[in-house]
Every structure is written in C-alpha cells, then in structure tokens.
Amino acid sequence: MLFNEEFESLPREVLQALQLKRLEQVISRVYHTVGFYKKSFSEAGVSPGDIKSLDDIRRLPFITKQDLRDNYPFGLFTVPMSNIVRLHASSGTTGKSTVVGYTKRDIETWAELMARSLVAAGLTKNDIIHNAYGYGLFTGGLGVHYGAERLGASVIPMSGGNTKKQIMILQDFGPTAICCTPSYLLYLAKKGEEMGIDMRSLRLRVGILGAEPWSEKMRQEIEDKLGIMALDIYGLSEVMGPGVAMECADGRHGLHIFEDHFIVEIIDPKTGEVLPYGQEGELVFTTLTKEAFPLIRYRTRDISRLMVEPCKCGRTYAKMARVSGRSDDMLIIRGVNVFPSQIESVFVGIEGLEPHYQLVVDRQGALDTLEVRIEVSEDAFSDEIRTLQKMERRIAKDIKDYLGVTANVKLVEPNTLKRFEGKAQRVIDKRDIQERR
Amino acid sequence: MQVEQISVFLENKPGGLSYVTKVLKDANINIRALSLADTSDFGILRLIVDKVDSAKGVLKENGFTVGRTTVIAVEVPDHPGGLHSILDLLAKEGVNVEYMYAFVERSGENAVIIFRFDSVEKAIDVLLKNGFTVLPGEKVYGI
What we know:
The complex is a heterodimer of chains A (437) and B (143). With 437 residues, chain A is of the alpha/beta class. Chain A contains eleven helices and 23 strands. Chain A has helices at residues 5-8, 12-33, 35-43, 65-70, 104-120, 139-151, 163-172, 182-194, 216-226, 340-348, 385-403; strands at residues 84-89, 99-103, 128-131, 154-156, 177-180, 206-209, 229-236, 241-247, 255-257, 262-267, 281-287, 298-304, 306-307, 319-320, 325-326, 331-333, 336-338, 357-364, 367-375, 407-412, 419-420, 423-424, 427-429. In chain A, the strands form six sheets. In chain A, strands 4-3-5-6-7-8-9-14-13 form a nine-stranded mixed β-sheet. In chain A, helix 5 (104-120) packs across helix 6 (139-151) and helix 8 packs parallel to helix 9. Chain A is globular. Chain A starts with a helix and ends in an 8-residue tail after the last strand. The mean pLDDT of chain A is 91. With 143 residues, chain B is an alpha+beta fold. Chain B is 34% helix and 37% strand. In chain B, strands 1, 2, 3, 4, 5, 6 and 7 form a seven-stranded antiparallel β-sheet that branches. In chain B, strand 2 and strand 3 form a beta hairpin. The longest helix of chain B has 12 residues, at 82-93. Chain B is globular, with a radius of gyration of 16 Å. Chain A binds chain B through residues 375-378, 381-385, 388-389, 410-416, and chain B through 5, 7, 9-11, 16, 37-39, 41-42, 44, 46, 60, 63-67, 69, 98-99, 116.
C-alpha cells in the first residue's frame, strides 16, 4: 500500500526531473533570502544559474551543524516569524542546540511524509497508534502524531516515561502499532514480563522504531519478545524530523528516502567527495520543499549507504541502509544526542575538577547506561566520603539538567584513564550495535 | 596540639592499597595509625605517619591524589567507659565528630584516639578544660 501512489511510484526519470525543478527553486530562494547561503555560494564560486543538472549539486558547499549553531537561533530561516507556526530544537545544551522552524505548509508536508511512513509499515486508518516518542522540543512526538492523524489512524499521545502506565494502556487500549526508540521498546517488554504480562498476547503487530542506532540482533529480540514486526524509521530535526526515510513492511531491507522532498548523497566524511551507490559513507541531505528552514547539502554525520534496486513494495525511491554509526563523536544515549564536549562543559563549572574524564556507554538489558569517570584532582579531593559523594551527585544532577541523560558518575584515581599519544580516549562504547550487515 | 593526617584517594580495586604501602615502604616511612573509609566505588585512606612531608611527596610522585587534614590525638583512659567520657562531653558541648579511629599503641597507661571534628579549636578547648590530654604532633608521629 502507498499513501501517495502518484509520487511514491514515479518512474525515476520523472522523479529526477521533479527533483531538479525543485532544487533550482530552493537554491534560488535560499541564495536570495539568507545571507549565509549567498556568502557561502559566492565563496565557492557558484551562483543559482549554474545549477542545471542534479549532478551540479556537487558544486555547492556543504552546510554543517556548526553553521547551524553559528546562526542560532533563527539566522537560517527564509521566512519572517509571522509565517512560522512551529519551532523545534535538537537536544543539547542551551545555546548549542539547533533550532528548526516550520511554516503551515511545512507541517503539512511533514505530516504527509510521516503518514507515508506509517502506510509503508502496513498501517491504515483503522490502526491505533501508541506514540511513545517524547512530545516537546524533540521532533519525534509531534512528528509521528501529525502523521498518524493525517492518515486518519487513532493516535495515543503517550510521550516517553511512566512505563507502568504505558503497559496498562498497551493492555487496555489495544494499540496495534507502537512508535518509540528500539531500546525503550525492549525495556517496556522487560517491564511487562516482570509484571507477569504476556507481551506477545497484546494486539500490537508493528513497531516503528528509530531515533537511535540499533541492530538486526535487536530487531530479532524485539520481534520475538513482542510478537510484532519491527521496522526502522529515519529522520533528524534539522532535515525535518521522523519520516525522512522509512523501511517498508514488504521489503524490510533498507529505508526508502522520500526523494520527491529530499536529495540524498553519500560522501567520504574525510574528503567530502561524493561516493557512488553501494559505498558506505556519510549521509548528506538537501531539502527540496521546506519553506521555513531549507537546508542545502547538510552533513548529517550519520554513516550509511544507498541502494537503488527496485523494491517489491512499488516505491521507486532509493533506499538507505540502517545507520551504522557516526562520523563524529556524537553519542546517542537512550535517544538523546550527547557530545562528549557537552559533558565536559558540565564539570568545567565545578571548582577544582580537571577535565580528565572518560565516558563509558554500555547497554544493560535493554537500556543504555552512561558512566562518567572523572579523575580526582588535589583541589577537588576531600578526606570525607560525604564531600566526594556530594560532588558525584552534583555532577550527575548537572548532566541530567543540561543534557537530559542519567549518568552514573564515578571518581577515579589520577592518570588511570588510558591516554593514547597524549590524547585521552574519551569514549568507550561497549554497546554492540554498530554491526554491519 | 594538632596532628597532620594524610589522606589518599583510592579506587575500589585489587592492589590499590598494597601499592600505597609499597610506596611508603620504599621511602622508609612508618605508618603509625590508619583508617579506611569506603563506598562501593572508592575509598579514602587516612594515615598518620612518622614523616608527613616526605610521605605526601612520594605518594604524589607516584600519581596519587593526596590530601592533608588536621586532626587531634587524644589520650583516652583505657578502661570501660573511657571513650564514652570523651564523647559524652563533646556531645554536651555541641562538638560534632566527623570521624575517628584508634591507635594500636598506647601512650603510657592510656589508649590514643584520632578525632576529626567540625570545629577543631573548640574541641581542643573543651577537652583541655576538662582535663583530657591532647597529644602534640611530634609525640604522636613517634608513638
């Protein structure tokens, strides 16, 4: 089933012609309305008139998360605030988050793409959708919500947390689909089992899971424990939110990218060179239809590869493989984006602590855990246990307040954290989720 | 009237404590009294040694986080109720004991207890006024 049969199954030549027409329009628009683009295009020696084919996109410069931060909060919007109907922001410390705006039409486009995603997962207006993505600045909750309403399905705006209530609603309301992070679904399954509930007997039949890296092994586990089909959804707030790409229930091999609204490229993260289909590299997105906050060649830092083999579902879009990692040091912990530098900025504010630290990320059962190991300096040391414990608790609280992740803070002896070539190994990720297919 | 105590941060792992004692042994430093306070993750080793400065120096050189705290050594009558007489007095005077530990050796007829108080000056004052003996550092390091 396709939600928008006309666009989702366009012959590729027609699709590409549509992409080119939309690309020309958006390039011209950003060039003339946003100082940043005019400057960066000029520096690269390109003007809108030079873009005559889809391959010409390679002549345009990339835009990075740092550029977004430099233009915080609204510097890259192409419409006045009076035309913006919604703001979202990516996770991160104040001032370091990236803010995205949507016009009324952007919200409609997003709802359509999300509805397409739900249909790709085999859902119809007769389904009841339990939406456990967080509602708020994060795009997950409202993104899925509007898509579900657009489809005409019944949506339960559950948001995150409150696991016991989630399980009660799963039992009592009988949703047929659930949207959340894969690790949270495993956590729900475990809690349900502990409460003596047969999670396979629920009416759930589909899980639409994303916002963090996961693996085929986790998919198997989720499907076994809950007796559902688990599908991968991709999106990021900068580009739109959930619904940029979706795995279809028919193919279950890669995620269809809604190419009538986005151009996707894979590049070598080191050189920036565009790589051919099939090769692994960093995903780069250009938005074709967004009004308020178009992005031209946005470097996502997500590592994947592209496939164009026809799919039995009938969609003609290219597919991306499940994201296998990052080309920067960003960690995704329980769905929250965390940069080690943000954690560091938390202890810089605490007197006497030296920035010798290490982050250990692991997965216990279904949930990610973050351990922050910090070397105790002489200035921070006390001969009283309670003073040191108070410091541990304070750091943990600050990390929770600023970043929204729960950390287990552990003080360690100086010089115990491994250093390579003088540079500390800041992050140890023990989660075995970066496996390649 | 005050005694210098060295404190060392230790992670809770095998060999941590023995490395401290090795460093002190190699520097020919004698441990006079010690206590170990611990949590599930880490511990704090508190030491009274015969050579405070060199002990602190060698431990730092060997990568430990070392602190220095002022504590008080008090002679306690070595009979039932001896310690209680001191604690009872301090409680009545509103002096709080942060921690305490005992010396193995005696000072004459008396036991020796190391105290860490929230207010050191007041504690010394109260103890002396009530006839207790507070030992000076030089005497304690050599007991």
